[in-house]
Amino acid sequence: MGTRAWALLLVLCGTIFLEGADVAMMAVAIPAIRSDLGLATGTAAWVLSAYVLGYAGFTLLGGRAADLLGRRRMFLLWLTVFLAFSGLGGLATDGWMLVVARFVTGVAAAFMTPAALSLITTSYEEGPKRNKALLVFAGTGAAGFSLGLVIGGLLTELGWRWVFFAPVLLTAALLVAAVRLVPRQDAPPARGRTFDLPGAITAAGAMLLAAYTVVRLEHGLHDWPLTVVSGLAALLVAGAFVALERRCPDPLVRLGILRHGPVVRADLGALLFLGAFFGFQFVVTLYLQELRGWSSFQTAVALIVMGIDAVLAPTLTPRLVARFGNARVILGGFLLAVAAYALFLPVGMDWSYAMMFPTLLLSGLAFALAYGPLTIAATDGVDESEQGLAGGLLTTATQFGSAIGISAVTAVYGLASTGSGPEATLSAFRVALIVPLVLVVLGALISLVSAREARRAVRRASQVSSVSASHTSANPAQRSGGIASPK
C-alpha cells in the first residue's frame, strides 16, 4: 500500500482505537466518578449501560445509513458528535448529564464504527490488501481496549474528567486528518432511493429493547418480570421490523443477507468470542480488585499482556490466513480460548501472577487469531453496496456479545453468591468463569462448521479444475486454439 493508503488506514484505525480506549477508560474511572459526584449505585451503573444501549441500539441503522447516505458523510458527522458529547461528559456536574452524554456518545459510535469499517472494505481491493487492512483495524481496536485500561488508570489519578477530555483531543486530530484523507468519491451508491423510515424506527426500537434486556440480565432474578417484558417487547418489535422489510420495495435491511451462511456464522462467532473475552476479563478484574485487593492501575498493568494481539494481528495473523485460510485460523483462535479459560477455572485465593500469566497470554493470542479473520469473514463476498450493512451486523454482534458476556457472568456470579467471606466469593467467581468457557466452546463448534465448509469448497474447486484440465487435454481443438489439426 502507498503512503496515502496507509495514512487513511491510520485514521480509520484511530477511530476504533478511540472507541475501545473510551470504553476501557470509563470502566476504570467509574468508581472515582461515583465518589466525586455522589452518584447512587443505580446511576453509576447507568453511566456504563447508557453507552451500551446507544451503541448496540443503533449500530444496525448506522451501518445501513453509511450505505444509503454516504460513508464519508456519516463518518465525519458522527465523529464530530462523538467529539462534542465526550467533551460534554467531561463538563457534567450531575449523574443525568453523564448518562445522556454517554448515551449519545454510544449512538455516535454506532454510526461512526460501521462507516469506518465499510470505508476500509470499499477503499482497499478484496484480497491480501483488504485482509491486511481489516486485521490491522481489528488489532487496533483490541489495543485500544487494552491500553485504555492503563491510560484510564493514569488519567483517573490526574482527575476523572480527563477520561472524557483526552478522547476529545484525539478525536479532533482524527477529524482534521479525516477531512483531508477520506475519499470524496464516497457518494451514496443508490441515489434517488427512499430512506425506509418505518424500518429504521422499528430496527432501532428492537435493538434498544434487546440491549436493555441484556443489561437487565445483570440483575439476575431481581425484578425478573421487567426483564421478561422487555425481552418479549424486543421480539414483538423485531417481528414488526421483519414484516415491514418483507413488504418494503426499498428496505433498510435486505433480509437475504441473513441467508448468507458464512456471514451469519462469522457474526455469531464474533458475538460468542467477544462475549467470552469481555466476560472473562470482567470476572478477572473483580477477582484481582475485590478479592486480592489490587489497585485499578495494578490490575490494568497485569491485564495488558492480553493486548498482545495488537502486535500479532497485523504481523503473524495475515501470514496464517494466507497459508491456512480464515476458517482454520478462526477455529485455532477458538481452541486457544477454550484452553485459556479452562486453565483459569481452578483459580485459587493465593495464585501468583505467574500462575495467571498462561491464561492471560493465551487469551490474547486467541484474540489475535480469531477476531481479525472473523471481521474478514463477516464482510467477504458481500456486495459493495451492502458493506455498511455487513459492518453494522458485525458491530451489532460484537456489542451484543460483550454486553451478553458481562451481563451473564454478573448474573451467574450473583446467583452463585450464597454465602459471605472470601471463600464463598472465590467459589462464586469460579462458577461465573464457566460462562466464558461455554461461549467459546459453542463458538468453536460453529467455526468447525465453517472450516468444514471451506474445506469442501476447496475440494469442489479442485475437482472442477481437474475436470476442466482433463477435458482440455482430451480436446485437440482447444489445445490448438480451437482449430483441430487434420489427420
Automatic annotation (TrEMBL):
Give its localization: Cell membrane
The record's InterPro entries line, in alphabetical order, gives:
MFS, MFS_dom, MFS_trans_sf
Q: Keywords, A to Z?
A: Antibiotic resistance, Cell membrane, Membrane, Transmembrane, Transmembrane helix, Transport
In this chain the Major facilitator superfamily (MFS) profile domain maps to 8-455
UniProt region (Disordered), positions on chain: 465-487
- What kind of membrane protein is this, topologically? Multi-pass membrane protein
Q: Which residues cross the membrane?
A: 45-63, 75-93, 99-121, 133-156, 162-182, 194-212, 224-244, 264-288, 294-317, 329-349, 355-377, 389-416, 428-451
Q: Where is the composition biased (Low complexity)?
A: 465-474
Tell me what this protein is called: MFS transporter
Lineage here is: Bacteria, Bacillati, Actinomycetota, Actinomycetes, Kitasatosporales
